[in-house]
Amino acid sequence: MLRLVLxxxxxxxxxxxxxxxxxxxxxxxxxGEMLAGATIQVVNKETLSAISDNDGRFTLDVSxxxxxxxxxxxxxxxxxxxxxxxxxxxxTDLIIDLTPTTILTEAVMVRATRVxxxxxxxxxxxxxxxxxxxxxxxxxxxxxQFTPSVVSTSDAGTGIGYTGIRIRGSDATRINVTxxxxxxxxxxxxxxxxxDIPDIATxxxxxxxxxxxxxxxxxxxxxxxxxxxxxxxxxxxxxLELIQSAGSFNTLRTTVGAGTGKMKNNLSxxxxxxxxxxxxxxxxxxxxxxxxxxSAGYYGDKTIIKAxxxxxxxxxxxxxxxxxxxxxxxxxxxxxETASTEGWNEEQxxxxxxxxxxxxxxxxxEDQVDDYDQHHTQLHFSRRFKPGLxxxxxxxYTRGKGFYxxxxxxxxxxxxxxxxxxxxxETDLVRRRWLDNHFYGTTWSLQLDKGKVNSVFxxxxxxxxxxxxxxxxxxxxxxxxxELPYRYYFxxxxxxxxxxxxxxxxxxxxxxxxxxxxxxxxxxxxxxxIESEQESVDFSNRYHFFNPKAGLTWEFRNNxxxxxxxxxxxxxxxxxxxxxALGASAPRPxxxxxxxxxxxxxxxxxxxxxxxxxxxxxxxxVLTGELNDVGANLRVNVPESFRTGIELDADARITSKLRxxxxxxxxxxxxxxxxxxxxxxxxxxxxxxxxxxxxxxxDISFSPEVISGSQLSWKMAQPFxxxxxxxxxxxxxxxxxxxxxxxxxxYFLNDLRLTWTPTVKKLREVSLSLLAANVFNVAYExxxxxxxxxxxSTTYRQxxxxxxxxxxxxxxxxxxx
Length: 817
What we know:
CATH superfamily of the largest domain: TonB-dependent receptor, beta-barrel domain
Number of domains: 4
CATH topology of the largest domain: Maltoporin, Chain A
Structural class: mainly beta
Strand content: over 45%
CATH architecture of the largest domain: Beta Barrel
Helix content: under 10%
Largest sheet: 22 strands, antiparallel, barrel
Number of strands: 42
Radius of gyration: 28 Å
């Protein structure tokens, strides 16, 4: 990256600035929010126009006009059009404030859970043009990977299938995700499974990432970040769209979309279907994905009623076991030790010894798959009762059902609740573990914008009902099970979640804006039945959380803002924490105190933000190595831990053709006192003792101290653009001991993206893009895990990693009528 920066420092002074460029920013006159997608057009010159970008900025070349003065019209849906006249010969840097009309737009559906420009929180936004440019059919974590403090990973190594995201070192269970204000996190695990709604990026109008706690919203507590996704807005005109992607690992993606536009009766209908297939980088890590998005809306001047249906089907071959470090290093003796420690049979051992070091997959059974369907229904009502007062009511229902199938050899029937008098109760078998769930509820908000006050009163009530059960579907010729399929466990979880929040901003002066946010959240979580290890499940937990937030924003100079906020969040233990701790000390809820402070600067050519954060955790749940009675890992509360760091985010239009977006995060992530638990089974493995190792100021696992991203784009000549994309992630530890023998090495990746967007008559858009990912063929891993134990005087330690693809390619063709 350093050589790249120096290169541009050398050549930039030789670049010539055009004297016929109009630059500017388009923003909301009331909130200061930057408006992406506004049209800036020279009057009576249809070919001379520009569209504001992701940050509301635009550059318009007016060299084709001969007039000394130029008349411009600025338009944006939901805002009053504005006309201005400028001098062609005078250097122009415009700030255009548009006034909202009384006509509602879909932005009102997510405004209650989003951060506006004046609110003193840390956030980044991606609008549709940037989302489309980066979306080659990979899951959402790879669309977001160049935003600040983000690390993305993929089990299959390609960004298709099971993917993960961490923000400021916090994993997906600590990142609150909403879609149109509706909670998306799984209620019990609090995880986010983007594979269940593949290609949702194509149907996304905008995405806002609030880092830290952010403002109050709906669903799971945000302990690292919030991802707020808004689906497609109204298309004013009818359209037909085809997107076709293809590339390495037999990846193929087809997306077809169509819409009626706004019809005379104020109705509009949209539909999209996507199909994605990939062989994956890891052996047998195939993905067979399909998804859909449909909507029907009524758009009145004061009322919007919109029904949205979206979901997906996924069948992915399991690649979540990872690659042992012994296989990555091609150490034959260590591989034999891995096989022995894991208890692998001869066939599995030979698979380990003879596989590619970077693409090894322990699974060879043909149907070792995850098979899951998820379908979402949302109904939104928005009404402007009078100027400045708007209400929103949303109803939602999600249906999910699926299983993962696996082959198990030499299983003991007693582990499946079977008592038998047969000479041998061991058998090879195939089993499926099912999840069958329903999630429904409502969210609502009342928004007041009057004079100096911007206030939102809102909340939500949600109910989750989930069945967990397992079935043996094949046991060969063994007569162990009375019938097949044989259900060997069943348990049910029910979870009620009620939240109410009130957040208010007040303009104390023209320069000072105060913000306060109060939230109550109550959870009632119950479970009963039998777990997979034949353990009884019976719990009933209630939690009550009060989460206040406050801050201020000070505009100390034109286009310069300083802000600071203090926020509190609470979070209940996840399902595994509760289940695995039955019979032991129940895990306590976690609590987080988040201080954010920084400044922002924005002009038509430069946007810059510097942010400091200090996230102080009380009773954070972490893995220590401690096991429960059936050998499952327990997460244990650690009293004190923290994350602190500096985030720098910049976007510079160096010339009319050259743009550089870059971000850098430098952080420290520590547990003040940590106790590692190891089990010593003795030299003869005939019992065990517990060994406890004490550590102080250790690094929190999976929390790199340095993360940076860069996007350098050059519009060489219309209609060509070339972009050089870079990502650096510092080293990460696999556990909380800061032991350097258990870490993920740092990596520096570079991608090349080429885009050609010619003008073709009768086509609204034609685009051909090529993504050359990891162009320097870096061998790297982005995720992993570790475990260890003692055998008397011998220490046994196994590290597993998730290698990512080397150099690979994706091409994408977009046609839009």
